[in-house]
Design goal:
mainly alpha
Length: about 280
């Protein structure tokens, strides 16, 4: 059950990222991120009762910290995109999202079995292979890209770790303080930087839809983390770039490169190893 929930989380989060990317193409990126977070708050208020559970003090605290970590990740990601190539920043950030929870679990003394650990390693390679691509120009600052990619990966990894620390009886309610804290943090960045608060009209619908899908995906991750190993569900949930790439192929007819085909195949191998272990 944990594996299925984690894969569903990756599918929903990757689909949300695809829609968020569509909205961002129309400009006002931080406004798109802000609408994404606010839509997530509203989605939580609507969906939370359907999943049951209740908020307690530890869940509120860890949820809020998770939201700040996620906002830090998003800001780092886009700052990296502004200073370097997506081909540098994206794979580092995506691998970080899966790797940090694995290291967290191992440091705490919970080491997965050999087959599962092999599946995790293959999964991290798959995430890198799917996420990387594109051309890196000589003029681009690769060091900045690596730096911001590491920061974004740390933020996304922290988001998954902190969400998993909430009470097992809270359901997906940890996402409410996470989205509220993230919204406040993104709003502060937008106001301080003097950017637009509202996306372009044609970007509003994909921005809101992205927020709903990503929130639901994060909610399924929270449920998965209560039913299985954090290392396993984190790596599987971090495969969200696969859904983004597949949708880009289906909707935008973007070319599915050999490298990304290989990454998708490795992802299937990783899932099989984890499930078999």
């Amino acid at each position: 059950m944990a594996i299925l929930l984690a894969l569903a989380a990756a599918t929903l989060a990757g689909s949300g990222d695809f829609l968020g990317g569509l909205g961002s193409r129309r400009g006002r990126v931080m406004a798109v991120v802000l609408f994404n977070h606010v839509a997530g708050v509203l989605a939580m208020l609507a969906m939370g009762p359907l999943f049951g559970g209740s908020l307690d003090s530890p869940t509120v605290w860890w949820g809020a910290v998770a939201g700040l970590s996620g906002a830090f990740a998003v800001v780092s990601l886009y700052r990296g995109f502004a200073r370097s190539s997506m081909a540098v920043v994206s794979p580092i950030a995506a691998v970080g999202a899966g790797a940090w929870p694995v290291m967290w679990q191992i440091v705490r003394g919970d080491v997965p079995g050999a087959m599962v650990l092999t599946g995790i390693v293959v999964g991290l390679v798959a995430i890198w292979t799917i996420s990387s691509g594109g051309h890196i120009h000589e003029a681009e600052d690769v060091r900045s890209g690596v730096f911001y990619g590491l920061l974004a990966g740390l933020g996304f990894g922290g988001l998954l770790i902190f969400l998993s620390l909430g009470s097992d009886t809270s359901g997906i309610w940890a996402l409410l303080p996470a989205r509220v804290a993230g919204s406040i943090a993104v709003l502060a960045v937008v106001l301080v930087s003097g950017r637009e608060l509202v996306p372009h009209r044609k970007a509003i619908a994909p921005s809101v839809s992205a927020g709903i899908l990503v929130t639901l995906g994060n909610g399924l991750f929270v449920l998965a983390s209560t039913k299985g190993s954090l290392a396993v569900v984190s790596v599987l949930a971090a495969m969200f770039p696969a859904a983004t790439v597949i949708l880009a192929r289906m909707v935008l007819h973007e070319r599915l490169t050999y490298q990304r085909r290989l990454g998708l195949a490795l992802a299937l191998v990783a899932v099989g190893l984890v499930a078999g272990g």
